[in-house]
Specification:
The chain has five helices and seven strands, in the order βββαββαβααβα. By secondary structure, the chain is α/β, with parallel strands linked by helices. The chain has one domain (3-46, 72-155): eRF1 domain 2 (Nucleotidyltransferase, domain 5). The chain has a five-stranded mixed β-sheet with strand order 3-2-1-6-7. Strands 4-5 form a two-stranded antiparallel sheet. α2 packs across α3 (108-117). The chain is globular. The two termini are 22 Å apart.
Length: 163
């Protein structure tokens, strides 16, 4: 068997409202969608999620008033919850030994939020990250784009299976 046939990839595309998990188990085989995680709240604007205005308070001298601002706004909170859900799917797949390598396709903000939620064994399996927002790509065209990202990995020297 050639090294390429031993490589099992999961490719996860993530944005604020959707995560798509694809698999590719061997060279020449088609990329197939295995998981679709929708997060409709990701499409909402801050004012649609957090309808209350920030509270107000007097400062220590009781002369000047100032507004409280949430350290984490509602949109960020919802995004972190969603990334936690995506991380759980990836961890479950890892624990069932369903992939050896992971490719993450996301804009830099979502990639950063997802990476904070991933456990070390998953981080060790990341073979490639692609900074791209796929919001405007037709879902039927996504596998062709993913194939481009995987070509260089398939030609790379044998990746050792992560633990």
């Amino acid at each position: 068997m050639t090294p390429d046939l031993d490589r099992r990839f999961w490719i996860v595309l993530v944005n604020r409202s959707l995560a798509l998990v694809y698999q590719k188990y061997s060279a020449g085989k088609a990329i197939r969608l295995i998981e679709r995680i929708e997060h409709p709240e990701g499409r909402l604007k801050r004012h649609e999620i957090d309808s209350d205005k920030p509270g107000r308070s007097f400062g220590p001298s009781m002369i000047r008033r100032h507004a409280y601002d949430n350290a984490i706004n509602a949109v960020d909170h919802k995004a972190r919850q969603f990334m936690s859900e995506v991380a759980a799917v990836l961890d479950h797949g890892r624990s069932e030994d369903r992939y050896d390598w992971l490719v993450i396709v996301a804009n830099s903000r979502m990639h950063g939020l997802l990476k904070k939620e991933l456990k070390k064994p998953i981080l060790n399996r990341i073979a490639k990250t692609v900074s791209r927002d796929f919001n405007y790509v037709n879902e039927h065209e996504i596998p062709a784009h993913l194939q481009e990202y995987l070509r260089e990995l398939e030609r790379a020297p044998l990746l050792r299976k992560a633990g």
